[in-house]
Amino acid sequence: MFVYGTLRFPEILRVLLGRVPDMRPATATGWSVRALPGVVYPGLVADPDGVAQGLVMTGLTEAERRLLDAYEDDDYDPVLITLDDGQRAWTYVWKASTEPYDWDVERFAREELPAFVDRCRLWRRAFTS
Questions:
Q1: CA dist 71 to 74, 89, 105, 124, Å?
Q2: In contact, 3 and 10? CB cutoff 8 Å
Q3: Torsion of CA 39, 56, 75, 63, to 10 degrees
Q4: Which residues touch 71 (CB under 8 Å, ≥6 apart)?
Q5: Are 55 and 25 in contact (CB under 8 A)?
Q6: What mean pLDDT is predicted for residues 12-41?
Q7: Which fold does the domain 2-128 belong to in CATH?
Q8: Which of 9-18, 48-57, 68-77 has the lowest mean pLDDT?
Q9: Cα–Cα distance between 81 and 109 in angstroms, integer?
Q10: More exposed terminus of the chain, fewer Cβ within 10 Å: N or C?
Q11: Nearest CA among 86, 59, 28, 19 for reference residue 5
Q12: What is the model's pLDDT at position 129?
């Protein structure tokens, strides 16, 4: 699975999955990781001039994949894309409107990550209840 936003952070994966799967850097030309209106997480959108930076996460179980599908809301579609190394990977593509600029992963890590981890922890508890 190609992850480009909050799912690239080990702290978030530990809360959601209880572990951090194997990951390696990857890029996807023709895609951009855009900021979204009113939220701190991003969305992946088709962009002929874009290059999305992210990670490929491998070794997910079927149960983990179902959990991640539930975690992503209805504004995301799971889509199989081709990465720059020629491999294909599933990812979550954003379907709604975006801001006209890219998401700032460093700013998220610096300013939003701890609160987002807490938010994920609450979501995970509710999901298993």
A1: 10, 18, 20, 9
A2: no
A3: -110
A4: 16, 120, 123, 127
A5: yes
A6: 97
A7: Hypothetical upf0131 protein ytfp (3.10.490)
A8: 68-77
A9: 26
A10: C
A11: 28
A12: 80
Cα separation, 105 vs 43, whole angstroms:
12
Helix (H, G, I), strand (E, B) or coil at 121: helix
Provide the annotated active-site residues: 72
Sign of CA dihedral 44, 47, 52, 58: positive
Contact call for residues 127 and 70 (beta carbons, < 8 A): yes
CA distances from 48 to 43, 51, 52, 83 (A): 16, 9, 11, 14
Q: What is the mean pLDDT of residues 27-54?
A: 98
**Tokens at residue 83, please?**
């990465």
In the chain, what are the domain boundaries?
A: 2-128
Provide, rounded to the nearest whole percent, the portion of the chain with pLDDT above 70: 100
Burial of 18 (0-12, 13-18, 19+ CB in 10 A): exposed
Task: Copy the structure tokens of residue 79.
Answer: 């889509």
